[in-house]
């Protein structure tokens, strides 16, 4: 079967453009519903979390070290530290957990 990559790219670009253009073209009035505003505000965060979380659990050699790193990242982020601080603490937690698991095995 002959696959034309340019056709795939063109279709993908068209679908992406339509998804972004249609809501703006169809709704000309400002959204006043607090529920819809709140829903649309949190959609990007929910999508990012849904795409990122499975990768977090499979990024290390062990699911245990991934869970420990994720937990440490949640705690540090909850304390409103910077993104760099959260990432450094999570990496350190994964590193230490991996070493502990390596010696235990």
Textual characterization of the structure:
The protein is mostly helical and 105 residues long. It is 80% helix and 0% strand. It is built from four helices and no strands. The chain has helices at 5-26, 34-57, 63-78, 83-104. Helix 3 (63-78) runs antiparallel to helix 4. The model has no long low-confidence stretch (mean pLDDT 90).
Report mean pLDDT, rounded to a whole number: 90
What does the radius of gyration come to? 21 Å
Strand residue content: under 5%
Which regions are unreliable across 5 or more consecutive residues at pLDDT < 50? none
* Helix content bin: over 70%
The profile of the biggest β sheet is: none
End-to-end Cα distance: 49 Å
- Gross morphology: flat
Helix count from the secondary structure assignment: 4
- Name the helix and strand elements from N-terminus to C-terminus, one letter apiece: HHHH
Features:
105 residues, mainly alpha
Précis, in short:
This protein is mainly alpha-helical and 105 residues long. The chain is 80% helix and 0% strand.
Helix/strand layout:
Layout: H1 5-26, H2 34-57, H3 63-78, H4 83-104
Helix pairs in contact: 3-4
């Amino acid at each position: 079967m002959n696959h034309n990559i340019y056709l795939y790219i063109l279709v993908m670009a068209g679908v992406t453009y339509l998804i972004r253009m249609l809501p703006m073209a169809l709704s000309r009035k400002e959204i006043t519903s607090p529920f819809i505003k709140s829903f649309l505000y949190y959609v990007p965060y929910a999508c990012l979390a849904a795409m990122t979380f499975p990768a977090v659990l499979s990024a290390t050699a062990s699911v245990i070290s991934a869970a420990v790193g994720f937990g440490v990242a949640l705690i540090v982020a909850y304390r409103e530290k910077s993104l760099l601080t959260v990432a450094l603490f999570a990496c350190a937690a994964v590193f230490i957990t991996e070493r502990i698991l390596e010696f235990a095995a």
